[in-house]
Design a protein that fits this description.
Shape: globular
Distance between the termini: 41 Å
Oligomer: single chain
Number of helices: 6
Length: 582
């Protein structure tokens, strides 16, 4: 039985007094259950309000769900009908988007597209069936509220039982702003490299002359000058103004997760940041990746992976030694880190591992000349992530999972091969858990390593749409095809079509592209086993190809998930139209 505890529309109230009495009785019983901590199955309540929080000794105002940073982890079950009642106690409108969830578009939670938003003092009920399982998250989609703390994890249990891990933990990564987000954006509009405090020095100039020679060094500096860019500019906003958190806690607040030696521990990584990519590693442990963006994968073992903004990865670790292990998530530009401990005892904390050397962008990353020059300070993670996403028939050799061991690069790319993790396992003090030998191993995860657990034949795309990812760093404006959202026409497709999108990144930044309500099958040349994702990261100067089944009628948001990029114009409306009736 469903009860709408917050029904306020008098036109829908019962006409007779007896019905009114019954309605009041049911509502009272419902509230009593809520207050006692017993919610009706499939029915949830969240209150959005301001609260003062103290992150590292700096009290600030946050916008939170149920007073939590992050908000409460919601547990659903595949096949149930959920009802989520949201009460807005802010002085401004709010909203919640259920990221990666298949639902009617009116329930998607994007003001101005799928609904009007939740006005101050108002309540709104989301209602939809749960058609999937896996690791997802929810977040605000109004103003900067997502950056101000309005986000939380969403775990959906499968309808059919699956082998369970001995322990199951959410590892929710986020970037907490020490400055008002609107002020941060205003600073970027005035000076796009405002937060880049890692620029090269005169000492670096002379070191490059010694390494490359005067002519090559001058050519490199002139090329970067023409682009008004610096090779240390990996992130628009960084650790100079952000604190990096695990489940709302700084490294000094010592977040930890317990285990017993030999147990299989499932870690559900969610990047709920507004602007930060993390490079994740657990020194001494191999991570078995089993899911990405809520979708099961053919398992593979890695020592490290990069998680883009809004992505999720599920991994299994099986620590054998009775010791504390680090969960270490470095910001991509090495300006800070989030840290937690996986420990057999609550009072045992893992030491913070040494940082990875700072990385530099290369002109090859920009799609420019001098592609053969490696940047000073490059490391294995950067090299592994350099890969252009494979394209169609050119990489048909990847269609079979058995051929996982090698990767072909596109012509002209200077890539380091992804090395098996076994070559790197002999580090002092490392106790790698034994993994089944048939599972492939890599030093660092690359999109080209991902294979869906089950095949999904999509058929030939009905049409192809190219979208250029564009921006103007001088004015800090981001867009598709040099057109801001305010001036752009919607993209229209027909229900039932498979649409191929080509994302051509003409900028110097990474862009995590998210389509609401629909799935993107990333073309890595694996055919029916191409991974199914709700966010696809597109590296600087590269092209990614995705096939999107238009299987849900409605008006859907389509945007870069870097909050400031979305806010300044890298956003579209995608309309899936029902076929014309004959």
């Amino acid at each position: 039985m469903r009860v709408n505890f917050w029904q306020t529309d008098s036109r829908s109230a019962p006409a007779d007094s007896a019905a009114k009495c019954i309605s009041k009785l049911i509502r009272g019983i419902g509230w009593a259950m809520v207050l006692s901590g017993q919610a009706l199955a499939g029915e949830y309540h969240l209150t959005i309000a301001e609260k003062r929080v103290d992150i590292g000794g700096e009290p600030q105002t946050a916008i939170l769900a149920d007073d939590g940073l992050p908000g409460p982890t919601l547990h659903w079950r595949e096949g149930e009908d959920v009802v989520l009642h949201i009460e807005n106690r802010l002085s401004e409108p709010t909203s919640i988007h259920w990221h990666g969830i298949e639902l009617p578009y009116r329930m998607d939670g994007v003001p101005g597209i799928s609904f009007e938003g939740i006005a101050p003092g108002a309540r709104f009920s989301y209602r939809f069936p749960v058609k999937q399982n896996g690791t997802y998250w929810y977040h605000g989609h109004s103003g900067m509220q997502e950056q101000q703390g309005l986000f939380g994890a969403l775990i959906i249990d499968p309808a059919q039982p699956q082998p369970a891990a001995d322990r199951d933990y959410v590892v929710l990564l986020s970037d907490w702003p020490q400055a008002d987000p609107y002020r941060t954006l205003a600073r970027l509009k005035k000076q796009s490299d405002y937060y880049n405090f890692q620029k090269r020095t005169v000492g670096d100039f002379f070191a490059d002359i010694e390494r490359l020679g005067l002519r090559e060094t001058l050519s490199d500096r002139l090329a970067w000058g023409e682009m008004r860019m610096d090779p240390t500019d990996l992130a628009d906003v960084n650790g100079s103004t952000y604190r990096f958190l695990v489940n709302g806690r700084t490294p000094q607040m010592a977040q930890h997760f317990l285990f017993k030696p030999g147990e299989r521990v499932r870690l559900r990584f969610i990047n709920a940041s507004a602007m930060t990519y993390f490079d994740v590693r657990m020194p001494g442990l191999t991570m078995q990746v089993i899911a990405a963006d809520g979708q099961n994968l053919q398992p593979l073992n890695v020592n490290a992976f990069r998680i883009a903004v809004a992505e999720t990865y599920d991994v299994i670790v099986q620590p054998q030694a009775e010791q504390a292990y680090s969960i270490f998530a470095e910001a991509m530009d090495r300006s800070g880190y989030a840290h937690a401990s996986l420990s057999p005892r609550a009072d045992w904390l893992a030491p913070v591992p040494p940082p990875t050397p700072r990385t530099l962008l290369t002109l090859a990353d920009m799609g420019g000349a001098h592609a053969g020059h490696a940047a000073q300070g490059d490391n294995h993670l950067e090299h592994a992530e350099h890969a252009e996403h494979a394209e169609h028939a050119e990489h048909a050799e990847h269609a079979e999972h058995a051929e996982h061991g090698g990767h072909a690069s596109q012509a002209g790319e200077n890539l380091e091969a992804v090395k098996p993790a076994a070559e790197h396992a002999a580090h002092a003090g490392h106790h790698h858990a034994a993994m089944p030998p048939e599972i492939p191993s890599y030093q660092t995860l690359d999109y080209r390593d991902l294979r869906a657990e089950t095949a999904t034949p999509l058929g030939k795309p009905a049409r192809e749409i190219e979208l250029r990812l564009t921006g103007d760093m001088r004015r800090y404006i981001w867009s598709f095809d040099d057109v801001k959202y305010a001036h752009a026409e919607p993209i229209r497709v027909k229900l039932g079509q498979v649409v191929r999108f080509r994302y051509v990144n003409q900028t110097m930044m990474n862009h995590p592209i998210h389509i609401h309500g629909l799935w993107q099958y990333l073309d890595i040349g694996a055919g029916a086993y191409n991974p199914k994702k709700h966010v696809v990261n597109v590296r600087p100067g590269t092209t990614a190809v995705v096939d999107v089944p238009a299987d849900a009628v409605g008006e859907w948001a389509f945007h870069c998930h870097l909050l400031y990029h979305m806010d300044t114009g890298m956003f579209r409306k995608l309309i899936v139209e029902a076929p014309d009736r004959e």
